[in-house]
């Protein structure tokens, strides 16, 4: 296998805060791998194998550094293994080998479930975010799935989104500090509906108090759909906050028609955040001298919806995207393709060398 002359850096295994003892004990592993390992050890058999890992889609790889950390910290003897791998963020083809592990199978047999699961989840997120950024023509994206999934997935998901932004040269904001922890970032956020409700439904008052509290470098962005009158509320907030306002966020429910569009209904889909609503808010802000105020659009945005907004030239400056970024699947497979120097893959599986793989030190 070829080794690149200029190695790229990898995350330190300590970053991942792995439950090392449980992983070493096979606690997170499909039982049949633990049973297989136990059989081999009981029989005194220590086969030297080549394990090959791949997936079946055009994708952007995620989770490699985490998978390597699992092997380094949780195998029986990392120094006895030879591992070659691609890097987080690499574009990968169907069936392309992304990772190989060579050594005594009993050293790492108990880790297959774990490293495959990591690769599957992180690659799914990285690829989904890249697709969203492509559709958005590299406009900033706010990564907002935290409320749609278990809190324990936030850390790696946030990093996978960050990797996607790095790939595309686009700004990816995450909404929790945990999502940003692996690269030392911070979560970002807008003035939410809950704060507006806490001020009796008065968006201007809530926004003003938020702006007074916020540190100077915070981009103050305010939800303006609380009263379902986004044009009027956006103007009220812009007048009240002046230069302190970075942007307004449109988040109208897909079951509602904003009041500003009621008289125009008839030749377009009027519910939710739609192109006409964004245009009306932009026109009003510009007309009254608030050209610098950004518009963030959120609420049910997918690759297809963003692509359509961009095709139409809708004046959105950034998109907030949630549950669509964690939907789908990008499954990985690991096969033993060589045992004690002889081909041993099942029918249809063979060793697939990949010159892009780098030796992991």
Polypeptide structure, described:
The chain folds into 2 domains: 13-123 and 329-359, nicotinate phosphoribosyltransferase; 136-326, Aldolase class I (TIM Barrel), CATH 3.20.20.70. The radius of gyration is 25 Å and the shape is elongated. The strands form 3 sheets. It has a 6-stranded antiparallel sheet with strand order 13-12-1-5-3-14. It contains 11 helices and 14 strands. The chain has helices at 20-24, 31-42, 64-74, 105-108, 112-135, 154-168, 193-198, 203-213, 230-241, 275-287, 303-312; strands at 48-55, 59-60, 82-85, 91-92, 99-104, 141-143, 172-174, 220-223, 245-250, 294-298, 318-321, 332-339, 342-343, 358-359. Helix 9 (230-241) links the parallel strand 8 (220-223) and strand 9.
Total beta strands: 14
What's the assembly state of these chains?
single chain
Mean pLDDT: 95
Number of domains: 2
- State the name of the first-level CATH class of the largest domain: Alpha Beta
Helix content: 25-40%
Put the structure in a nutshell.
The chain is built from eleven helices and 14 strands. It is of the alpha/beta class and 361 residues long.
Question: What is the topological layout?
Answer:
Blueprint: H1 20-24, H2 31-42, E1 48-55, E2 59-60, H3 64-74, E3 82-85, E4 91-92, E5 99-104, H4 105-108, H5 112-135, E6 141-143, H6 154-168, E7 172-174, H7 193-198, H8 203-213, E8 220-223, H9 230-241, E9 245-250, H10 275-287, E10 294-298, H11 303-312, E11 318-321, E12 332-339, E13 342-343, E14 358-359
Parallel strand pairs: 6-7, 6-11, 8-9, 9-10, 10-11
Antiparallel strand pairs: 1-5, 1-12, 2-4, 3-5, 3-14, 12-13
């Amino acid at each position: 296998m070829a080794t690149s002359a200029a190695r790229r850096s990898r995350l330190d295994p300590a970053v991942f805060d792995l439950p090392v003892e449980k992983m070493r004990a096979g606690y997170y592993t499909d039982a049949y791998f633990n049973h297989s390992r136990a059989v081999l050890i009981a029989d005194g058999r220590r086969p030297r194998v080549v394990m090959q890992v791949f997936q079946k889609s055009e994708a952007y790889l995620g989770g490699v550094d985490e998978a390597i950390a699992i092997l380094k910290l949780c195998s029986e003897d990392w120094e006895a293994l030879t591992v070659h791998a691609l890097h987080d963020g690499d574009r990968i083809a169907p069936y392309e080998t992304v990772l190989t592990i060579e050594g005594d199978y009993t050293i790492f047999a108990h880790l297959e479930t774990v490293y495959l699961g990591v690769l599957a989840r992180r690659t799914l997120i990285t690829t989904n975010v890249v697709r969203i950024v492509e559709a958005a023509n590299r406009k900033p994206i706010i990564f907002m799935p935290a409320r749609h999934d278990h809190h324990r997935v936030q850390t790696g998901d946030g990093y996978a989104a960050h990797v996607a932004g790095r790939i595309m040269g686009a700004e990816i904001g995450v909404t929790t500090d945990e999502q940003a922890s692996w690269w030392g970032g911070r979560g970002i956020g807008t003035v939410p509906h809950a704060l507006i409700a806490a001020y009796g439904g008065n968006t201007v008052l809530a926004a003003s108090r938020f702006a007074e509290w916020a540190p100077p470098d915070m981009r103050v962005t305010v939800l303006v759909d609380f009263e379902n009158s986004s044009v009027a509320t956006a103007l009220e907030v812009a007048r009240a906050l002046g230069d302190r306002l970075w942007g307004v966020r449109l988040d109208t429910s897909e079951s509602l028609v904003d009041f500003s569009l009621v008289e125009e209904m008839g030749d377009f889909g009027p519910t939710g955040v739609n192109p006409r609503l964004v245009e009306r808010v932009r026109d009003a802000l510009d007309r009254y001298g608030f050209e610098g105020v950004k518009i963030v659009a959120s609420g049910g945005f997918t690759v297809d919806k963003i692509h359509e907004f961009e095709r139409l030239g809708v004046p959105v400056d950034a998109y907030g995207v949630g549950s669509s970024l964690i939907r789908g699947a990008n499954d990985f497979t690991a096969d033993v393709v060589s045992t004690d120097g002889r081909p041993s893959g099942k029918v249809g599986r063979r060793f697939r060398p990949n010159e892009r793989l780098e030796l992991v030190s």
